[in-house]
Write a structure and sequence with these properties.
single chain; alpha+beta; 28% helix; binds cobalt (II) ion
């Protein structure tokens, strides 16, 4: 477009709206799948959530590829994911070293992980997984880099 062409003052808003609609923004997340908390002592954390909040373990799994062991505590249709490293070189081990225990990532359920990941890339977002991969309990997952996501590590989960 020529810089001299008269612009519709609403054009950019319309462009944003249609881009969001095309990307399905707002419709990609169907549920919060889990909130992940990095802990040093998985057993102690499980006891704390049970004794304090009555939250019970629904699933436990060791993920060799990520070097972590997790416990999923049911909260309605979502989970608290308590995660602890099983190796010194795991991402969660480095996180604990740098930042200590605490909130690690938020996972959102999506219908189609590959499509959601592509939507992130189409918006110029940085991703940690170029393609979806296997998560725990048979899910398909992909992580979005916190840089470009307002400081939160985001996991996309397809059941
Ligand atoms: Co997770």
């Amino acid at each position: 477009m020529s810089p001299l062409t008269a612009r519709n003052p609403n054009e950019s808003e319309e462009a944003r709206t249609s881009a969001a609609a095309a990307a399905g923004a707002g419709a990609l997340f169907t549920e919060i799948d889990h909130v992940a908390v990095a802990v040093r002592d998985l057993g102690a954390a499980i006891d704390y959530y049970r004794d304090t909040f009555g939250a019970l373990v629904e699933h436990r799994e060791e993920l060799d590829g990520d070097g972590v062991e997790e416990a999923l505590l049911a909260v309605a249709e979502s989970y608290i994911q308590l995660v602890t490293p099983t190796r010194d070189d795991s991402v969660v081990a480095r996180f604990l070293e740098r930042r200590g225990e605490g909130l690690h990532h938020v996972a959102y359920r999506v219908d189609d992980c590959a499509a959601a990941l592509q939507a992130v890339k189409d918006q110029g977002g940085r991703v940690l997984d170029e393609v979806p991969r296997a998560g725990s309990r048979g899910t398909t997952v992909a992580f979005v880099h916190p840089a470009g996501a307002f400081g939160t590590l985001i996991e996309l989960v397809q059941e």
